From TrEMBL:
Belongs to the peptidase M14 family. This is M14 family metallocarboxypeptidase. Residues 30-324 form the Peptidase M14 domain. The keyword Ribonucleoprotein does not apply. Transmembrane segments: none annotated. One of its GO terms (biological process) is proteolysis. The lineage of its organism: Bacteria, Pseudomonadati, Pseudomonadota, Gammaproteobacteria, Vibrionales. It comes from the Bacteria.
Amino acid sequence: MITEKFYPIGTPGKAWGEAERLEWKNKARIRRSYEDDVVKRITALKDRFRVSIYGMLSFNPDRYPLYYLRNQNWRPERPVILITGGVHGYETSGVIGALQFLEDEADSYLEHFNILSIPCVSPWGYETRNRWNPCAIDPNRSFYTLSRCEEASHLIQLLSSYMTRAHILAHFDLHETTIEDESEFRPALAAREGLEYVPGSIPDGFYTVGHTENPQLPFQKAVIQSVRQVTHIAPSDSNGKIIGSPAVQDGVILYAMKALGLCGGITNCRYHTTTEVFPNSPRITRQQCNDAQVAAITGGLDFIVRQELESGVCTAQVSHLRTF
């Protein structure tokens, strides 16, 4: 089908080839600094976290090393909390929220957990404010065996080494749903696939995406309750849906994480949530977006500690935990 409002790359009704993908890449421009915004904040944490490089992006390895952090006092007997941000590089609070959690809140949980964080999975996407990588591939549809996406394959390799010797209990994957999803990225996706662009809607507010095979709805509810102290939760539409998917409870939808190749399905953890903040809302500031990401993590972790304490997974006292 030919779209009436055609994206300005390629031929209507025809999927992109390598020439169109290269044209798309060449239109990208550096709009902010990975080094200044992200790497400097990562390296500033070296006194509290072990900072390592788990790969480099081949198209510019000197500019785009891939960093992960883990707490210095790593205890093999403790479960691991995984925090990922910037799978879609343009979703700013996913990156900054992960860093802010490490800077301000992580120490409160090290008596219970090991923390493993990859704050910026897609640094080229961060700098150019793009959803895709330079090959016009969406990293968050690429977490599967023999992935063609460098950002995804590097992270898969890193986590596979951890999963063989550590118990990853929870995964927080930090995202945004932005106005650019409809103004740029979904039209580009339709053009790339040679399909008609059908406009959608962007929910105004925060919501989470759980795993259809393991939704953990009480955990999702705790995340939502925590974020509600910072900003508003996205309402369901007149059909009871959020961004086209049925809301299973207030501010929560479910996706088939593994089947879709999403980062949220990269482990077999007990607890998972993908956060979604709407940074273009007139009701939220950029700092509140970052704070909402942090609140999602702390709310989820406080819930996990309460749930797991009796089973012996967490061994420390819980007097510092928040109540709502």
